[in-house]
Amino acid sequence: MADEEKDCIFCKIIRGEIPSYTVYEDDVVKAFLDISQNTPGHTLVVPKKHVKDIFAYDDELASEVFARIPKIARAIKASNPDIIGMNIMNNNGRVAYQSVFHSHIHLLPRYSASDPFEIKFTDNSASYDEAKYKKIQDSIIKHMEA
Ligand code: 5GP
Ligand code: ZN
Asked: In ligand 1, which atom is closest to the CA atom of 20?
């Protein structure tokens, strides 16, 4: 086993070396309660294969992992009538708040506008003109895999 997997906290949870409150498991993913419980029911969906971040997924793994999200989300929502929404988040890279470098998807049940959890988007459209949007668009298209 590679050192990366040996020392990885989520690989240890997947191998059962560290306990977790597992809510779903199959051959592709393990879903367990996030220790921090930002909101009650906060769950992590983790591919059993050690992949660092979204940039390391191949199409097959992505389709298998992401296909499982809705049913896990539905079970969490159904578990508590106070859950009226859910944020689904996936952090990639330290700058984007990733702290465990085994890819995982956060399922964050929402109860009210005052939940102790916030995502704040900024509208910067006033500082963008057509040329600026187009330059970004062209560069992304140029790098898109077939
Ligand atoms: P990230 O910041 O990488 O997007 O999220 C990592 C998450 O893993 C955090 O929300 C943190 O609470 C959770 N976490 C870290 N260590 C453990 C652990 O040992 N067990 C569980 N269940 N969650 C963990
Ligand atoms: Zn791992």
From this structure: 22
How many Å apart are CA 133 and CA 138, to the nearest integer?
Answer: 9
Domain 3-118 fold: HIT family, subunit A (3.30.428)
Query: pLDDT per residue over 5-54, tens digit each?
Result: 999 999 999 999 999 999 999 999 999 999 999 999 999 999 999 999 99
Domain positions in the chain: 3-118
Ramachandran class of 122: left when φ > 0, alpha when ψ lies in -120 to 50, beta otherwise = beta
Q: Best of 9, 22, 30, 35 to mutate for ligand 1, by most ligand atoms within 8 A of CB?
A: 35
SS3 per-residue string spanning the chain? CCHHHHHCHHHHHHHCCCCCCEEEECCCEEEEECCCCCCCCCEEEEECCCCCCHHHCCHHHHHHHHHCHHHHHHHHHHCCCCCCEEEEECCCCHHHCCCCCCCCEEEEEECCCCCCCCCCCCCCHHHCCHHHHHHHHHHHHHCCCC
Task: Identify whether 104 is a catalytic site residue.
Answer: yes
